[in-house]
Write a structure and sequence with these properties.
By secondary structure, the chain is of the alpha+beta class. The protein is 29% helix and 23% strand. It has helices spanning 24-27, 47-62, 68-82, 118-126, 178-193; strands spanning 4-6, 44-46, 88-95, 98-106, 112-114, 130-132, 150-158, 161-170. The radius of gyration is 17 Å and the shape is globular. The structure holds methionine sulfoxide (SME).
C-alpha cells in the first residue's frame, strides 16, 4: 500500500490567485464528494503524486523572481496550504549563532532559537533533517503551538552553505516520514536553485558540510 495523504477540507479551497497554478490539493482531485460532516471521502492520493504536483506548482511560482524573502514566503505558504495536517510551516534563518524567525504560516512562534536548541537548533547544528514523531519525547523540544504533536525540521542550504531551517509541525503524531523528508528536500533544492541569498544570511563557508 502506498503512503496516503488525507486532505483537510479547510485547506483544499482556492487559495491561489489566477496567475498562480493550482495547489496539489486542488489539482490532484478532479472531483470531490463531501459527507454531511463536511469531510471529503474521495481525497486519498499517494504522497509521491502530491509532491510531484507541488514541484509543478513551485517552479512557476518562483519563475522570474529570485528575491529571497519573496520566494521563501511563498514556499511556506505553498506547503502550508497544500500539505494536509500541518499547523505550522516556516523558516528560521541563520543570524550568527542563532536562528531567527522568518516567513511562516501558523500561530505566532518564538522569535529566536540558539543553534543546538530544540528541534530547529539541532537540525541546524547537525546540518541534517530531524524527524520527531512525538515532540513530547524530544529532549529540549521548544513549544510554540501546543497543538503540535510531531515535527520535521530540514536544514536549508545555498550552494552548500547553511541559510537556516524549514520547520513543519503537525497536530498528528508521527505525521512525517522519510518520503516527506526526501520530497521536501527536493522542493527546497528547487527553491534555493532559483533564489538569490544575501551574503549576510549565509553561514561562513568553513561551517558548511555539503
Ligand atoms: N518546536 C521547535 C520550535 C519552533 S516551533 O515549533 C514553530 C523546536 O523545538 O525547535
Amino acid at each position: 500500500m502506498p503512503p496516503e495523504f488525507r486532505y483537510s477540507p479547510a485547506r483544499s479551497g482556492n487559495t491561489t490567485g489566477s496567475h498562480i497554478p493550482p495547489s496539489p490539493a486542488q489539482s490532484v482531485h478532479g472531483r470531490r464528494n463531501s459527507t454531511h460532516s463536511g469531510q471529503f471521502v474521495n481525497d486519498y492520493v499517494s504522497k509521491a503524486a502530491v509532491y510531484e504536483q507541488l514541484q509543478g506548482s513551485l517552479r512557476p511560482l518562483i519563475r522570474g523572481q529570485t528575491d529571497f524573502l519573496a520566494n521563501i514566503s511563498n514556499f511556506a505558504a505553498l506547503l502550508f496550504n497544500s500539505l494536509p495536517n500541518l499547523n505550522w510551516a516556516g523558516f528560521y534563518l541563520l543570524r550568527g549563532t542563532d536562528l531567527v524567525l522568518g516567513p511562516f504560516q501558523g500561530k505566532p512562534a518564538c522569535s529566536c532559537i540558539a543553534i543546538g536548541d530544540g528541534v530547529c537548533g539541532t537540525a541546524a547544528l547537525q546540518r541534517a533533517a530531524v524527524l520527531v514523531p512525538d515532540v513530547h519525547a524530544f529532549p529540549g523540544h521548544i513549544v510554540c503551538d501546543e497543538a503540535s504533536q510531531s515535527e520535521m525540521v530540514l536544514p536549508v542550504f545555498k550552494e552548500g552553505r547553511l541559510v537556516g531551517v524549514l520547520d513543519l509541525d503537525s497536530p498528528l503524531p508521527a505525521r512525517f516520514d522519510e518520503i516527506d523528508r526526501d520530497c521536501i528536500q527536493q522542493l527546497l533544492q528547487t527553491l534555493m536553485d532559483g533564489t538569490m541569498v544575501p551574503e549576510f544570511r549565509l553561514a561562513p563557508p568553513t561551517q558548511s558540510r555539503r
